[in-house]
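Students often ask what a holo structure prediction actually looks like on paper. The answer is less mysterious than it sounds. You provide the chain, you provide the ligand, and the output is a string of discrete structure tokens encoding the 3D arrangement of the protein together with zinc ion.
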Amino acid sequence: MRTRIGMLVAAAMFAPASTGGAQAVDLGRARVIDLTHEIAVDGPAWPGSRAPFRLDTLVASPTAAMFRLTLNEHFGTHLDAPRHGSGMGWTNDQIPLSRLMGPAVVIDVTAQSAGNRDYGLSVADLAAHEREFGPIPRGAIVLLRTGWARYWGRPAYFGADTTVTPTRLHFPSLGAAAAEVLVERGIALFGVDSPSTDIGAAPSFTVHGVLARANIPSIENLADLGGLPRTGAVVVALPIKTRGGSGGPVRVVGVVP
Ligand SMILES: [Zn+2]
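The corresponding structure tokens follow.
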């Protein structure tokens, strides 16, 4: 089993021919980190979203259990298929596996976000990252660490001024100009540890559109990314394979050699 999984991850590493710096990972020695929040009734839901999650009992006895799951695609740690942000592009079932497994690049703006909850990753931040850690390779899975996972389940997570005005939110994420640079880099997948790829205060879903029109899927509501190195880890992020889905729950793991 260990050999088979090792081969799977190694295959993922070498699948995108243009990633450069591909490495094999020995799962027998690697540290595996869960980057996924639980899906639970008390999990934070996008303000104003209706009944995002239910688990109704169909069978509950001393010898058996079965529930009916009702879930908004965009609840908890979830993937946005390109169709979600653009009305075109891949749906869940169409995203190639090569986009969902690959070398991780972690960009850290926890310091900037701590001082400004409306912070958007800038082009200058990307340049600073690349000066220190090297160019972002084609096919990379770029994860943005804002530090917002520490607010999961607390009002500060969305930074809503009220519970009834979903447009007035405050949390950090990716800036639109930086999103254009990531498209130029040819990244495979983007993920963030805050509620959305657009900052909460953004007037529209510009970043959603930039990524989606480039057919780049993204992940929102990642758990704490602090256990990952800035480069050198592998990420595997496999969403539910709903036909025609605009997104859905995704289990995300980081594999640190
Ligand atoms: Zn979403």
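Confidence is low (pLDDT under 50) at residues 1-20.
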